[in-house]
């Protein structure tokens, strides 16, 4: 499996979802019919911390990020987003 190592102040994100394909009432919703865009991402990889550029997030954090921020990358059939840490809006706790 290939791995993405971000450069400078960038982080690699993976879309986070609770994988709810069946509603509370028991109705199955196909993936193609879901129109919601997730703005919550899981941090997969970060650039190593330095005194010059301290990293404010760590691997495993859930973060909010704008829909159009960063660049989309597909690797090994998985979709990732690479963004500068400046484009992260907050950490979900």
Q: What profile does the largest beta sheet have? A: 6 strands, antiparallel
Percent helix, as a range, is under 10%
The computed structural class is: mainly beta
Q: What is the third-level CATH name, the topology?
A: 10 Kd Chaperonin, Protein Cpn10, Chain O
- The CATH architecture would be Roll
Low-confidence stretches: none
Spatial sequence of strands, sheet with the most strands = 4-5-1-2-3-6
How many strands in all? 6
Instruction: State the name of the first-level CATH class.
Output: Mainly Beta
Whole-number radius of gyration? 15 Å
Tell me the strand percentage band: 35-45%
| Broad shape | globular
N-to-C SSE string, H for helix and E for strand: EEEEEE
State the end-to-end CA separation.
30 Å
Please tally the helical runs, counting DSSP H or I stretches of 4 or more residues: 0
Query: Please, what is the CATH homologous superfamily?
Result: GroES chaperonin
Mean pLDDT: 80
What do you see in this structure?
The chain is mostly beta strands and 93 residues long. The protein has a single domain (10-17, 35-92), classed as GroES chaperonin (10 Kd Chaperonin, Protein Cpn10, Chain O, Roll), CATH 2.30.33.40. Helices cover 0% and strands 37% of the residues. It has strands spanning 10-15, 40-46, 62-65, 71-75, 78-84, 88-92. The chain has a six-stranded antiparallel β-sheet with strand order 4-5-1-2-3-6, with no helix packed on it. A hairpin with a 2-residue loop joins strand 4 (71-75) and strand 5. The protein starts with 9 loop residues before the first strand and ends with a strand.
